[in-house]
């Protein structure tokens, strides 16, 4: 157990007041109390046969099925693109609560608009063959952030959220989820302070912890801990100091 120097009851009070709209819940103050854990659900984007996997010349996966097959959001988030695009015909991009982005292409009809909030597994479009396409399919991509220029492999991205391809809509949701707290939380390639930083979290972020391991001992925010959590969706590790849980070693999470 680690000894807490911040008050959970005060943190819950602040979160409750913020939710009521009385004060903003700043993602940006280092002394901000941690928020309660939030389950970040993952959902199957579409039923069908995977006809092309991720490779050097293909930034996503292609899931083929009949024209009109329903397409669903792979996670909760906000629609940042919904329209036409060269190559795709029509496309949708969704920015999720952990900062990642999923991309959907070639549909013949879209059912969501820009700035719309969507839930995990919500219907967003119907499969088509518009743009550069040889038949009805969904081209699905996953990106680390809105600024990434290349998609990452969607298979481990979806797997980290409890979805294996090919999949059945309505399935998903990993069993272990946590929320980070604090600001300027660095995600590193290895559980070492000298390892490269793959991204920095600016505020509380819902994450799926796949496993945890021992690494460099870190002292921060009044704690010392050598446990690190691997966050597959972010492609790296963060010290458990910044995971909102009173235990230094997270319960129910396997060792890497």
TrEMBL record:
InterPro entries: Cell_wall_metabolism_enzyme, Dup_hybrid_motif, M23ase_b-sheet_dom. Residues 57-145 form the M23ase beta-sheet core domain. Residues 1-32 form the signal peptide. SUPFAM superfamilies: Duplicated hybrid motif (SSF51261). Keywords: Signal. One of its GO terms (molecular function) is metalloendopeptidase activity. This is M23ase beta-sheet core domain-containing protein. It comes from Streptomyces fulvorobeus. The lineage of its organism: Bacteria, Bacillati, Actinomycetota, Actinomycetes, Kitasatosporales.
């Amino acid at each position: 157990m680690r000894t807490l120097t911040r008050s959970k009851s005060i943190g819950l009070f602040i979160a409750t007041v913020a939710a009521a709209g009385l004060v903003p819940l700043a993602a940006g103050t280092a002394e901000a109390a941690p928020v309660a854990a939030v389950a970040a659900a993952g959902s199957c984007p579409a039923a069908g046969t995977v006809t092309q996997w991720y490779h050097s010349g293909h930034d996503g996966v292609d899931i083929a099925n009949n024209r009109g097959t329903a397409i669903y959001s792979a996670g909760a988030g906000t629609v940042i693109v919904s329209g036409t695009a060269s190559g795709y015909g029509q496309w949708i991009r969704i920015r999720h609560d952990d900062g990642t982005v999923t991309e959907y292409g070639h549909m013949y009809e879209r059912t969501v608009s820009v700035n719309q909030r969507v839930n995990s597994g919500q219907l967003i479009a119907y499969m088509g063959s518009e743009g550069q396409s040889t038949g009805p399919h969904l081209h699905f991509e996953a990106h680390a952030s809105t600024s990434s220029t290349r998609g990452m492999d969607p298979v481990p991205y979806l797997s980290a959220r409890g979805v294996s391809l090919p999949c059945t809509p309505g399935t998903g949701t990993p069993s272990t989820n946590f929320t980070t707290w604090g600001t300027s939380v660095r995600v590193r390639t290895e559980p070492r302070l000298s390892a490269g930083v793959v991204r920095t979290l600016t505020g509380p972020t819902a994450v799926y912890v796949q496993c945890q391991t021992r690494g460099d001992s870190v002292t921060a925010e009044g704690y010392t801990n050598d446990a690190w959590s691997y966050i597959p969706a972010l492609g790296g590790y963060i010290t458990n100091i910044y995971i909102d849980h009173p235990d230094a070693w997270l319960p129910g999470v396997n060792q890497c």
